[in-house]
Structure formats: C-alpha cells, structure tokens
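User: For documentation purposes, I need each entry recorded in a consistent format: the amino acid sequence on its own, followed directly by the corresponding structure tokens. There are two entries in this batch. Please keep commentary to a minimum and don't merge the entries.

Assistant: Recorded as requested. Entry 1:
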Amino acid sequence: MKIPLSRIAHTRSGDKGDTCNIGVIAWQDRYYPILVREVTPARVKAHFGALVEGEVERYELPNLAALNFLLHRALGGGGTVSLRTDAQGKTFGAALLRLEIEAAPEEL
C-alpha cells in the first residue's frame, strides 16, 4: 500500500552553498529497511524534479536507522545569491516527507 514517507520517518535538513542536505530518520528501527528500499537517490531526484539540477547522493547510516542525502545544485546558487523565494535546505526536508512509498501492512 502507498503511504507518505512521514508515516515512518522524519527529516532534518540543512544547506551549504548550492547543496542541500537531508537526513531521513526512521521513527522506529524496524522501518529502516523500508527506507533503504524505497527512498533511493533516483526517487528523491524525481520527487524534486527540476529543483535539483545536479546529482543526488545517498549515505546509509544503519546504526541510526537513517539515510543522508546530498542534493547538488539544488538551491539556485545558494541562499545569498538565489532568486528563489526560499533557497534554504529546510524546505526540502519538509517536502520530501510527502514522497509516497510502498509498504506492506505487516511492515508497519
């Protein structure tokens, strides 16, 4: 069944220059395998579409039941030079929680 990512995880995010950093942390350790399977760099890049012009890197942190993503060329040049209304990483973390993922009832 399809569920929003927010059902099984929360995010912390930040930015440095034109790179956005998003940490996706499972609410419970048992949800971590779902994150690894469903929240891939390709899906994250597709979710944000044209907002992310560069590559998306993913780092797995199993001891924290978390994933960390770097979204390159995602902030319109960065907070001080961008013409975007909000060129900060915090908005990306909140937006990623709307990603729809697949999870079987027995996984929840």
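Entry 2:
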Amino acid sequence: MKRKTLIVSGVVVALALALISAVQTSTQSDLAKVRAATAKFHDPKAAQAEGYDLVPGLDYCFNNPGVGGMGFHYIDTAALDTTVELLHPEAMVYAPTSNGLQLGAVEYIVPAEAWDAEGHTHPPMLMDMHFHLNERLGVYVLHAWIWKNNSAGVFEDWNPTVSCL
C-alpha cells in the first residue's frame, strides 16, 4: 500500500511540475509578444503619437522611497475599459535616467467600479496573474517590467532600481 501511495504521489508531483512549466512557458511567450508590440514606444513621442500621454493629476513620477519607483505613466485613456488586451496595455511606464526617459514597463489598468458593476467576483487576470486593486486610484492594475529588469519580480509594482529623485 505504501508503494502504491508513493507512486501516486510521484505522478501527482510530476503532473504539477509539468503544469507549472507549461504556464511559465506560456507566460514567457506572452511577454515576448508584448515586447514586440511595444518596442516602438521606447521614445515617449512615439507613444504620444498613438494616444498614450501623461494624464493631469497623474503626470508625476511614481516613487515609493525605500521600496523603489515606477516612473511616469503615459496612459491611453481611450483604452480604459473592462476589456484587457494583451498586446495593448493601457499604459507605458517610463523610468527617469540621466539620458532621459527609458521605457521600463507596461501597465494594464481596468477601472474597478466598471469591472465590479459587470458582476465580476475576482479582479481581472492576464498571463496567469491577478490584477490588484489600487484603492487610491480606483483601478485594478498589473505591471509587467519587460524593458527594465526588476529584481522584485516582473509583475511587481515597484522596481528597486527606479528612482524619481
């Protein structure tokens, strides 16, 4: 009986590892697609030409001293709805550098009130990641640091190497 339990346990672990590997491969593939779709936005002027811009009231460098920064969010306000499109993030996030602004991340943004009004019981999800609620702004968000390494993680909000100071 112990041998049978051990074999079943081994099969379950092997299947779980295979599933994790498949999810990671899918996520990496999706991130590569987003990189390809947003490569043209390294220059903020190119993003502005396609509808991304600084929004009054949010036109500052997002910084969290001791944790990291994000940078400046150029937002396509026409895309702020309850539809999440992998290849059309709602924001391009630019980190300040000594050479100007550097595209560091993309951000997916969904207005929380509209999402919740549709009867959703969970936050939006993309690339097997749940968005989280930014209560202050009233939006669900998901960052993807695809252009600048983030030692805290690809999908973390704050990047320890970004500073607005």
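Summary note for entry 2:
The first helix runs from residue 2 to 38.
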